[in-house]
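Protocol step 4 of 5: obtain the predicted structure for the target chain.
Materials: sequence only (see below). No template structures provided, no constraints applied. The aim of this step is simply to have a reference model before the mutagenesis design in step 5. Sequence pasted as it appears in the construct record:
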Amino acid sequence: MDTITHIALGAVIGEALAGKKLGKKAMLLGAIAQSLPDIDFIASFWLDTSRDVSAHRGITHSFLFIVLLTPLLAWIASRIYRDSGMSRRGWWTFFCFQLFIHIFLDAFNAYGTGWFEPFSHYRVSFNTLFVADPFYSVWLGISFLALLILGKNSRRRRFWVRFGLILSSFYLYYCVMNKYKVDRLVRKELQRQHIAYTRYFTTPTPLNSWLWYIVAEDEAGYHTGYLSIFDKKQAIPFRSIPRNDSLLAPFRSRRDVQYLLRFSEGYYTVEQWKDMKDILVFNVLRFGEMKGWEEPEARFVFHYFLLSPDDNKVIVQRGRFHGWNEQTFQAFIRRIKGN
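Step 4 output (structure tokens):
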């Protein structure tokens, strides 16, 4: 999830776990602890782009990281707040729970998390929440502000803790149910259209849980499409995309390409952009298409320039909202409402 959501969630959980003993300091410590796994952003200052995207949400989002960091944080906090009344077990519970919730929640995004690093590079990804979903975060943000304003001894603090945690959890459950429904409809539609596939995934489009992006893989490439839970017609128009492994052959031995292949989890294509003949890109399909619900030949959000590696900066973010304007947003809302 985004940084602001982790801060708000950490603060609210901190209040729930230790507010009575630490006062508002529990919110501060919770926000810090909840944000610690994202310390891996520092690596981007010296890692090249391909290595950085593979390292992000890696070892700092692992169970090993929690096991190693929890006792250290608990020891530091117990030394600083000796008179707080928090037991050693209480500190361990506080930090372990905060760190676990961070990596657990991040696993609901398309990026995936390296729970089992460094023993396995497998990324856990439930593809259920967009990385920034305001309908999940808003309840936590309201609770966070209320808890900041209220006095530390106010009886209403308990209400606002419950408000944020219950409503955000309810929305997460709602997203899980949406994904279950979408997956069931997608499997039925692939079968109806006689599309043979080896595997598939669905993931929400930006900022919502109603319009879903679909990728079904076969031996030659992929079939991509979109489905809104409000669609009256369940027929999904799929776009066929070749993998183009032959275009990748000259680059396979390169270190950056090897990192990208691992990061893509096999969901990739290579293409030469039609309007730019000298541009050869490696696409990772897991992050969706730029305005794909509106443009049938949309480019992919994650695209890596193979012929000019030094031009690949902020690689995931650069395509998420590229070309968006008021007209695009209105088309997006119409598509969410259903076909």
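Step 4 remarks: The longest strand covers residues 280-289. The chain has a mean pLDDT of 94.
Proceed to step 5.
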